[in-house]
Amino acid sequence: MRDLSRRHFLALATALPTPLALARPAVARPAFAQASEAPAAPWPDRALRVIVPVAPGGSLDILGRSVARALTGPLGQPVVVENHTGAGSNIAFELVARARPDGLTILVGSDPLAINPALYPKLGFDPVKDFAPIAELVRAPQVLVVKNGLEARSLADYRRLAQEAEGKLTLASQGNGSIGHLGGILLGQTLGFNSTHVPYRGGGPAVVDLVAGHIDSLLVTLPAAIEHIRGGRIRALAVTGSARAASLPDVPTVAESGYPGFEVVTWQGLLAPAGTPEPVLERLHAETRKAMATPEVADNLRAQGFDLATGSRDEFAALVKAEAARWPGIVKASGARID
């Protein structure tokens, strides 16, 4: 267990019954109030850092900044977004895993947190043991999209073309080891076809090349492709969620296209370092839920193709644990490895 500073001890003491709470020095001011109380003084006592593991401009960065803006008022202190990129997001993950567990450094995490331990031989964090989930924010399915020149109007058409091409049909993703890459492996295993994987440095460049007709198909997070789908520049065949995406109601899921149980989704949420006091986590969870429910945040995210998550902290923790257990086998089957 991590050592707690005097401030952390005092923060925990406010949540405990007397006599410990009564023994607290009267001059000390805790960094956090109890989750159920409105703080008498500004809460917390200094700025929060929101660590985003990608460059500015991507969907994860936009999400982090939206939440940071919405949290600034209720918390009474600035909420500052910091982009720490590199090493497949591992730099940001390790920074937060090693941060002081006082609730003042939080991560906007996503599926690479659970996938990367299977991809990288040596990492300085464990996705389950080193993080305390605060709140799942959004989910988004992957979407299978094809260039307009490909004669496929359904998942059945795509399967037939892929089988006839005998591995020559190109299926791109946003990078080696990405959820799009691994989801494509799983899709081929489930439908019974082989394809040629084309990795890109992000979903944006991959979508641009699909629009230009340089690749045949792409499995990518829905928000990265939705405007091009709506504009008719590429064609969506299926989404990988358990239900149809509200932003694309006419596009069926892989499951309802004849492959029940198939599901691959991107998740994004807030996490703190392990050892962060429970009252702190509960307050952050409550304030985050309020922020996500504001029309400014909710409507903007839905328009981009995200589904807003509403689960508890325990449900988010269970998701991270399940994802960390799910991906190693698929990574091994894909042969993907990053040194």
TrEMBL record:
Residues 1-23 form the signal peptide. Transmembrane segments: none annotated. Belongs to the UPF0065 (bug) family. CDD domains: PBP2_Bug27. It holds the Pfam family TctC. InterPro entries: BUG (IPR005064), Bug_dom1 (IPR042100), TAT_signal (IPR006311). SUPFAM superfamilies: Periplasmic binding protein-like II. Keywords: Signal. It comes from the Bacteria. PROSITE patterns: TAT (PS51318). This is Tripartite tricarboxylate transporter substrate binding protein. PANTHER family: BLR1237 PROTEIN, TRICARBOXYLATE-BINDING PROTEIN.
